[in-house]
Amino acid sequence: MKIKTRFAPSPTGYLHVGGARTALYSWLFARNHGGEFVLRIEDTDLERSTPEAIEAIMDGMKLAESAMGRRPLFPDQTFRSL
């Protein structure tokens, strides 16, 4: 069985150190077990979500993107990729 972990922030603001730490731990766990890490942008708080927050999260994760080996997923893409 292949390990697949994810980090799924709600795009309501900037990526903060707690979120970055959680993403790092999830990525390290997947990497340590030969698995895959996925960044999935949540859509559970549409009232407060903004395109600028999505961009800020993506900018905050750019350093990790090359290590992750894939682009982030959005909810409408999740089921198609599993």
Automatic annotation (TrEMBL):
Keyword flag Methyltransferase: no
Enzyme Commission number(s): 6.1.1.17
Pfam families: tRNA-synt_1c (PF00749)
Keywords: Aminoacyl-tRNA synthetase, ATP-binding, Ligase, Nucleotide-binding
GO molecular function annotation: ATP binding; glutamate-tRNA ligase activity
UniProt entry tagged with the keyword Ligase: yes
Alphabetical list of InterPro entries matching this protein: aa-tRNA-synth_I_CS, Glu/Gln-tRNA-synth, Glu/Gln-tRNA-synth_Ib_cat-dom, GluQ/Sye, Rossmann-like_a/b/a_fold
Highest taxon listed in the record's lineage: Bacteria
Glutamyl/glutaminyl-tRNA synthetase class Ib catalytic domain sequence ranges: 2-65
Gene Ontology CC entries for this record: cytosol
GO biological process assignments: glutamyl-tRNA aminoacylation
EC main group: ligase
Name used for this protein in its record: Glutamyl-tRNA synthetase
Organism: Klebsiella pneumoniae subsp. ozaenae
Lineage of source species: Bacteria, Pseudomonadati, Pseudomonadota, Gammaproteobacteria, Enterobacterales
